[in-house]
């Protein structure tokens, strides 16, 4: 046997090949982003407004999906973090005349801080107990806003009107800023998935004992997940304030949190641009399509929700059956 030391080197594909693989894997997202960029040239102003709000809701769907994917938990209180972001933008705009360049970073920081502040005392809770505790946040939001009406505007709310870029039409700014933030969040989550921190958090979720053995405490992972999720939800609220132009307590109720969870379910907890848009559309555009149905809106909405869930459940099986049938043909 040879006494020469043996070194093991990781074999990586050549850089051009890796770049081709990366582009191919994200090609659908790139095409979708280009379509969304040129879409305002093809639709009316009312649809621009609705789609801009859809982008904002898609960010909230990503926040809930991130919590499910990385923390294995469900929240029905993310409207609280969205309200933190929305009122950060609205208050700085109305009371101090500051633009999104100041208010959006502040909203992100406050969202992360409130997420961690909630995660620490609830670090021992999981499952239905954590979900119910998050519901307490959603129930408290309207009262907190109304009892600080000197700052938040109370029931009447606040109007967000300061442009990010003076001179450009506000309708285009409300659309493109929300789209830019959505794409930035999707890109950041994709990078996080392959980062050392992201892999560590996933390990803590799947194998807590193994993560502890490597020095990663589950408490740290829980606080990190809720902090990031809260920050993303705050960005959702900030974009809801800017794209929707107004904020009020009625926009951040328990039902708002439930609908964010519904959007996450119909997007199958995906963190891609297409999946997030499916969830955002289910919150924003599907009710608009059903607006002419009158009293039947809840029935048709429920059928659409059931249809999406069944599609997500059976589509992989149908693809597998078709692939098996094609292989034997």
From TrEMBL:
Its main location: membrane. GO terms for cellular component: plasma membrane. The keyword Cell membrane applies. Keywords: Cell membrane, Membrane, Transmembrane, Transmembrane helix. It is found in: Cell membrane. It holds the Pfam family BPD_transp_2. This is Branched-chain amino acid ABC transporter permease. It comes from Rhodobium orientis.
């Amino acid at each position: 046997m040879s006494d020469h030391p043996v070194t093991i080197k990781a074999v990586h594909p050549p850089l051009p090949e890796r770049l081709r693989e990366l582009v191919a894997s994200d090609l659908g997202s790139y095409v979708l982003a280009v379509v969304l960029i040129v879409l305002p040239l093809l639709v009316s102003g009312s649809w621009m407004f609705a789609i801009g709000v859809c982008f904002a809701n898609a960010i909230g769907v990503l926040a809930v999906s991130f919590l499910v994917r990385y923390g294995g938990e469900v929240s029905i209180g993310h409207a609280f973090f969205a309200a933190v972001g929305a009122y950060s933008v609205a208050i700085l705009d109305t009371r101090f005349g500051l633009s999104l360049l100041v208010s959006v970073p502040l909203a992100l920081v406050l969202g992360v801080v409130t997420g961690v502040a909630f995660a620490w005392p609830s670090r021992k809770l999981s499952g239905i107990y954590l979900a119910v505790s998050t519901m307490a946040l959603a129930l408290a939001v309207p009262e907190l806003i109304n009892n600080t009406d000197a700052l938040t505007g109370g029931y009447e709310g606040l109007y967000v009107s300061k442009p990010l870029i003076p001179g450009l039409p506000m309708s285009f700014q409300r659309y493109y800023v929300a789209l830019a933030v959505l794409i930035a969040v999707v890109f950041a989550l994709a990078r996080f998935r392959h980062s050392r921190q992201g892999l560590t958090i996933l390990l803590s979720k799947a194998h807590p004992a193994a993560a502890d053995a490597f020095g990663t405490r589950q408490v740290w992972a829980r606080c990190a997940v809720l902090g990031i999720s809260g920050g993303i939800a705050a960005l959702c609220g900030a974009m809801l304030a800017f794209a929707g132009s107004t904020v009020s307590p009625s926009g951040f109720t328990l039902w708002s949190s439930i609908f964010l969870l519904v959007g996450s379910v119909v997007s199958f907890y995906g963190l891609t641009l297409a999946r997030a848009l499916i969830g955002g559309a289910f919150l924003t555009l599907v009710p608009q399509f059903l607006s002419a149905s009158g009293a039947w809106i809840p029935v048709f909405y429920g059928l659409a929700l059931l249809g999406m869930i069944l599609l997500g459940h059976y589509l992989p099986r149908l693809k597998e059956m078709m692939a098996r049938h094609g292989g034997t043909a």
